[in-house]
Each structure stands twice: as C-alpha cells, then as structure tokens.
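QUALITY CONTROL LOG
STEP: pairwise intake check
CHECKER ROLE: data steward
CRITERIA: each record must contain a sequence immediately followed by its structure tokens, with no blank fields

ENTRY 1 OF 2
RESULT FIELD BELOW
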Amino acid sequence: MVEYGRCQLYVDTEYIRKQLRDLKNDPWFGPVELHRPLNNHREDGRTFSVRRTIFYDALDPSSAEFKQREDHLDRLTRLPNTTVRLGHVTRDDKGNRRQKGVDMQIGIDMIEVARSGFVEYIALAAGDGDFAPAVQHIQDMGLKVFVVAFPSSLSPELISAADRIFELPEDPRPWP
C-alpha cells in the first residue's frame, strides 16, 4: 500500500512567468507543469501528494498584458485544488511596476499551513532569497520545505535553506 505525504505548493507566479519569458517560452502555465518535478517523488517512505496549489500574483490594470494575465489567473481559479491570491501593484519614482504584498503573503501562508498540521511538506516555486527566513521558520516547526525553481535564477540563500531543490527545465521543449 502506498503511503502519501501531503504537500501544498506555493507559486510566485511572476517569477515563473519571467523565467519562461526569458527562455523565450510561452509564459502561461498551470499547476501540471509545476507538479511534474514533484510527481512520484518519495520522501521519508511516502509518495508526494500535492493537495493544493496556490498562485500569487498582482495585476496592473495599466499594463499591456493586463487582460492576458487576468485571463490566465481566471483559468487557474477554475482548476480543482487551485487557488489564486492577489497582491497589488505600485510604481516607483521612475515609473517601474512593483508587486507589493505578494512575497510576504506567500511566507505568511506557508507558515500558517505549517502550523495547521494539514501538510507534512511545503513546496515553493520561487527563486528569491527573501523566502529563506520563512523556509527556515517552517523547518524549525519540523516540516520539510522543497523549492521548485529554474537553476539559473535560484538564489544561494534559498538553495542553502531548502531541504531539496527540484529543478524546472530551462529547455523550453518540456513546457507546453
């Protein structure tokens, strides 16, 4: 009999989208592509079972991509066991777009679910070293944290903090 380890996946949507765009790939993706490296992975004698995938993003109505992003997130919300949470967008002094509230919300949500006992594992699709303190806090609670990321854009801090790294393919062919 197969024993399953409950896992929840947290996705920094902007990170994945930017990396796919940099790879000259279609930047519109879903949970299937992110689950692929986790599927059938065994840890502590259990096979992974991703119970829920949560995508975090922020929409800028003045962006040229607004409608595409909105449609993409809308499609994601219709998938089973998938949630979308939104931060907000501000502009800096030079007019550059900045997401606000997204990374912090990911960290808070990961810690909250770790406290709840709902999962044994946390998976984070991101590359930013700013997540390292949240990862370490979750590990201090006794859970393992896995990072799903593109190797070329993964910060050393997050590499050091993670229990295991699952690499996303930088070759565009595996992506739909």
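ENTRY 2 OF 2
RESULT FIELD BELOW
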Amino acid sequence: MSDIETLLKRRHSLKLQRILSRKREELLSYTQKRLLNVPVRLVMDRDFLKLSPEDTIDSLIHGFSGEETAGVIVDEEDKLLGILTMKDLLRFFIPPTKYPIVGLDLLKSSRLTKRCKVKDFMVKNPITINVNDNLGQAIRVIVETGKHHLPVIDKERKVRGLLEVKDIIRFIRLTW
C-alpha cells in the first residue's frame, strides 16, 4: 500500500469518525431535550415523610427508613412550613471547634434532644419547585442552589411530593 493510499484511508477514517461523533451528539441532545421536558410530577416521590411542626426529633429520626432522607413539615391543610433533611440534622452533631465564637458551637451541640420539636430546627421557607414545572427547571434549581431535596408544591403551597436528586438519577437510568 502506498503512502497516498494510507493517507486517503486515514482521512476517510477521520471523516467517518467525525460523522459518527456528530450523530451520537444529535442522539444525546435529543435524549437530553426529551428528559428535560418531563414534568416533575412524573418523577417526584408521592410517598414521603410528612411531619407536623409539633413532632419530635425522635419521630423524625425514626421516620428515616430505607429511602427516606428528608422530612417535609406541613400544617393541617398540607401547606408547606419547612423541611428537615438528614444533612440538616448532622449539623447539630458537629463537635465544638477549638475556638468557638461566643460559644455558638457548644450551644448548637447541646440543645438537640429527642424531645425537641422539628419546628425549632426545620428550614423555614425552603426552596421549592412547582408541580407543573419540568425536570429541566428542577435540575437548574438543584445545581444553582446545591439543594438535594425540593418540596413539590401547587399554587396554594400544598405539598404534592418531594423531588430528590436520587429520583432524577433513577429516572435518567430508566430512560437512558
């Protein structure tokens, strides 16, 4: 085989690789677009841990079973009041630093007991997503805020579900 033939085969191979790469990108782009337009209500968890503000930290901790990693705090009408995640709880178990600022670390670690109410520790006015939004909007909120749990609410602020990063990843895995 001459140098010219080798060069032509190599050039043809590179051209073919570029075409295949472009086709893969188009297919991936189509899949991503389709995925981003899926309504949140199809992916959210409808069976989530719901708590009253008067529930104790003990009931929250015992409510974390298997898949549960957050508790959504609602009023009698299921309207959102707050959220409390495993990560939020862990902050209260951080040992005091060597030089606490005005003793805040000591206060933080000593005031959490089993009988404490979730209302005293919940994140009030958490970042939410609307039940009519799509996954693209939800992913944007998650990435921009760093939050892994989004209560899904309707226009009356009633909680309809909970969307977590793991729910989105599970959905991607099933549809990819």
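INTAKE CHECK: passed for both entries
DESCRIPTIVE NOTE, ENTRY 2: The domain at 40-175 is CATH 3.10.580.10 (CBS-domain).
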